């Protein structure tokens, strides 16, 4: 589990927009949000909320990347179906979610299983975790992250 002040792992990801980003030195602020699955109601709402604010994030100089274990083909359909303006990364092998501590044991109806915890990290251009949100609730989350990104940029 990464905490505020920790250095992001030196993992280079290739996003759905074709860009490559080294998480340990992204060069500009980065919002890295982890979500359980494409096409589910909460995950769709979260992606749409970040998309609605994508222009504001761009003005603040912040890149947004969503991460799930879905394959890129699923991400491409998800982006197309909802006209998403956020980049998505496939973490099929789990190395990103393992490094960030977002692949956790969950429980539903008494059954335990491994799954993606909804979490968001604001990473500075130098790769330091500036803010971490764990066990995210979707409503107003994209706005809260934008506010923190703006405050960090102003500091």
Provide structural commentary.
The chain has 155 residues and is α/β, with parallel strands linked by helices. It is built from 5 helices and 9 strands. The strands form 3 sheets. Strands 5-4-3-8-9 form a 5-stranded mixed beta sheet. The protein has a two-stranded antiparallel ribbon with strand order 1-2. Strands 6-7 form a two-stranded antiparallel sheet. It is globular. The model has no long low-confidence stretch (mean pLDDT 94).
Compile the SSE list and pairings.
Layout: E1 12-14, E2 20-22, E3 30-34, H1 41-52, H2 54-59, E4 63-68, H3 72-82, E5 87-90, H4 95-100, E6 103-108, E7 111-116, E8 119-123, E9 129-133, H5 141-154
Could you give a short description of this structure?
32% of the residues lie in helices and 28% in strands. The chain is built from five helices and nine strands.
List keywords for this structure.
155 residues, 5-stranded mixed beta sheet, 32% helix, 5 helices, alpha/beta, two-stranded antiparallel sheet
Poorly predicted regions: none
Gap between N and C termini: 26 Å
Q: Taking strands numbered 1, 2, ... along the chain, how are they ordered across the largest sheet?
A: 5-4-3-8-9
- Give the number of DSSP strands: 9
Share of helix among residues?
25-40%
Q: Radius of gyration, rounded?
A: 14 Å
Report the sheet-strand fraction: 25-35%
Largest sheet: 5 strands, mixed
Shape: globular
Mean pLDDT: 94
Total helical elements? 5
Structural class: alpha/beta
Helix and strand run: EEEHHEHEHEEEEH
């Amino acid at each position: 589990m990464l905490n505020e002040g920790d250095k992001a792992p030196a993992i280079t990801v290739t996003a759905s927009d074709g860009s490559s980003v080294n998480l340990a030195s992204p060069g500009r602020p980065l919002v890295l949000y982890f979500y359980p699955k494409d096409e589910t109601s909460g995950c769709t709402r979260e992606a749409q909320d970040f998309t609605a604010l994508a222009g504001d994030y761009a003005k603040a100089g912040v890149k947004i990347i969503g991460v799930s274990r879905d394959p890129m083909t699923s991400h491409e359909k998800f982006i197309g179906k909802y006209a998403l303006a956020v980049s998505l990364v496939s973490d099929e092998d789990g190395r990103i979610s393992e490094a960030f501590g977002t692949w956790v044991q969950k429980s539903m109806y008494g059954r335990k299983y491994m799954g993606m915890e909804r979490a968001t990290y604001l990473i500075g251009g130098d790769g330091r975790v500036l803010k971490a949100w764990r066990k995210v609730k979707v409503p107003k989350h994209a706005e809260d992250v934008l506010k923190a990104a703006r405050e960090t940029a102003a500091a």
